[in-house]
Amino acid sequence: MNSDMESNNQMEYMFSLIQQLSDKVEFLEKKIELLSTNKKSSVNSIVFRPRPEICFDKWVESLRVTNDILQYTFEKGILNGAKEAIISNFQSVGEPPIISLMRPKRLYIFSEEDWQPFTEYHLSLLVNELWRKFLSAFLDQRAEENLEEKMDQDIENPTNNNEQYRRDLFMKNILEMKTKLLQNHRREIIRLLFEETKTQK
Q1: Over the chain, what HEC string results?
Q2: Residue 90 and residue 92: Cα distance in Å, rounded?
Q3: Which tops the pLDDT comparison, 191 or 34?
Q4: Rounded (5°) CA angle 115-119-121
Q5: What is the dihedral of CA 3, 5, 11, 14, to 10 degrees?
Q6: Is the pLDDT of residue 166 over 70?
C-alpha cells in the first residue's frame, strides 16, 4: 500500500516536473520566434533602403577639414570640431552609407555590397581618418603665407605671446586628437551618428 502511494507520488512529481519543463520550452520557443521576427524586420528595413552612392570606407576617405572647420575647432575644442567635420560629410552625399535602426537600436554601415553592423573597427576607422585630415589641414594652414607673417609679428610683438601659446596648445590638441576622441568621447561620436542618420522605427 505504502509502496503504491510512493509510486503515485513519484509519478505526480515527475509529471509536474515534465509539465514545468514543457512550459519553459514553449516560452523559450516563443521568445526565439519573436527575436527572429524582429531581426527579419530590421534586415528588411535595410534591404529596401536606397543603395548609397558610396560605401562607408570611401565616405570616410572623403572627409574634408576646411579652414573654417579648423578655426571653429580652435575656438570650440576638438570634440565640437570633429562633430562639425562629420556633419559636413553627411551633408556632402545624398544617401549616406550609414543608418540607424531603433529596434534594435543599432548603427549599420554599407560595405562594398551589403549592410553590416557598425563596430569598433568602423569607429576607429572614422576617428583615425578625422585625425589625419585635421593634422593635414593644420599643417597646411601653418604653411600658408598669412600665418607665417602672423608668426613673424608675434615674435616682434611680445604682447601677442598669449595668442602664440594658444596656437601651440591647439597643435598639441590636434596631435592628441585621435587618442582623446577614442578614449574620452566615443559616446558623443556615436550619439552624433545616430542623430545624423535617418532612423527606422
Answers
A1: CHHHHHHHHHHHHHHHHHHHHHHHHHHHHHHHHHHHHHHHHHHHHHHCCCCCCCCHHHHHHCCCCCHHHHHHHHHHCHHHHHHHHHHHHHHCCCCCCEEEEECCEEEEEECCCCEEECCHHHHHHHHHHHHHHHHHHHHHHHHCHHHHHHHHHHHHCHHHHHHHHHHHHHHHHHHCHHHHHHHHCHHHHHHHHHHHCCEEC
A2: 5
A3: 191
A4: 110
A5: -100
A6: yes
pLDDT per position as a tens digit, 86-121: 999 998 887 889 988 877 788 999 988 888 899 999
What is the C-alpha to C-alpha distance for residues 89 and 93, in angstroms, rounded to an integer? Answer: 7
Tell which wins on pLDDT, 27 or 86.
86
Place of cell 529596434: 103
Report which of 40, 37, 63, 196 is spatially closest to residue 118, judged by C-alpha positions: 196
Cell of 99: 543608418
Query: Which of 20-29, 127-136, 150-159, 176-185 has the lowest average pLDDT?
Result: 150-159
Q: Which amino acid belongs to residue 154? A: D
pLDDT given at position 86? 95
Beta partners for residue 101, in sequence order: 106, 200
Question: Would you kindly state where each structural domain of the chain is located, as residue ranges?
Answer: 1-48, 50-200
Sign of the CA dihedral running 92, 93, 97, 101: positive
Place of cell 602672423: 150
